[in-house]
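Translate sequence into structure tokens.
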Amino acid sequence: MTSSHHWHEYEVGLVGDVARDVNRTLSPLALGLLAAFALVLAAGLAEEEGLVFDLAYDLGMGGQASSALADAVGFVARMSLGVLLVLGYLVGFCICLSLSLRDLATSRALVRAARGGAPRDAVPNPMQVESVVNDSVGALRAFLYLTVAVAGLVALTLGGYALVEGWGEGMLVALVCALCTITVIGVLRHISRVVVPDHQRRRREIAAHWTTADEEAAWARANGVAGPHHSRKNSSTGRDVRVRIGSVITVVAGIGTGAAYLLLNGLIIITHPHAQRWSGGDAGPRVQLDPAAERLVDIGTWTFGALIVAVLIAAAIGNVVEGAGHAAERRALHAALDDPQADRPAAAILAEYAERRSVRLAQVLSALAGIGLALGPAAAILSTFEVDSFTGATALFGNLRTPALLITGGSVVMVFVAFWWNSTSNRRGRALRNRIMARWPVLPRQSKDSEGRVHPARRGPALSAGRGAGEPAP
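Result follows.
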């Protein structure tokens, strides 16, 4: 007799859904920040070695304009590094916090389901089991320990220096860092004494409802139905061709948009270094280059301008094409699920729709937003505040304040759009995921951690109440 046990994705509530989608949105944004760091570092090194000035001078810009361009690149590079440091900390904290909230919300949701009489044959899927058996606050706790170390060190060193020198502002910063250190220590104490024990208790309650025998039955059915012949290795086999074509177009167009925009603005800065860079702003005097350089600038301007239009159109087309392919695949899956005699669909299609996924264009938007959030605020700060180590930056970047704020605001909007897109897509797909798991279970992806190990919940039963949260299965 075939077991009725199967995997099921339970609702985790608003906090759990938001935390999961925040993590899916911020991960590509972090990659965008890394790309911005590489770009800024390369530009800073080029300016430090005099390559920017030499290139501008060789193009016929003259000494004054070449020097202004080199100074601008140097200012943006140095200020962007500071912005990236702050953003890196905030994004890292938000990712760690979202992971913890996701795991805690999942364990709370499964306890509610168990107390509400959820059927024992509808076993939480491996991803939710993974959240339950995880050390739910491991990443957050490590991040907070790092915060304590850094803030405490700053409070001690800066406070001592400010006390000796009579520096009031420095003492104020030291006091803020000391207060931050004390607060974080209190949070860590609460985590150790309350949050972790509560999570362990919930795990034991969940494991008492869905026993090891229930998990084993669900895994046995998944292994029997999926089997080794339904491997994930050929991930494109059986997919609608429009999905593959559209995804490639979208990714390439996203990369091309960012590259073309940066290159076009680079040419405009070379030819109009004193322009007011917003819609309707004064272009300022045009720098006269030598004839060969003028021809290159003309060709580049038309090429990059046309490329921006082309890749934006291509990104829209790619998204529409990929969306049409996904819609066709979902219709085919629903039709197959409604037919009791239907054969099992291709493994690649089931793997795509049996688990939560990030929307590809949303990932591209988030990554591009990471680049914008690194460069936009840097230019806005340089154009607004006079800083001793950036002498002359306010006059040099004064005309860039409005576009810098527009870039920053646009990047923030892109992050929220990416989050909304991922959230909406995953909420709508939950019913389909559960129908697939009930009839054609798909073995979870064997994702490896930084040490090359696959999580126990992705290999077999892992809810056993005999272990504390975060302890590995034997």
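Note: The two ends are 30 Å apart (CA to CA).
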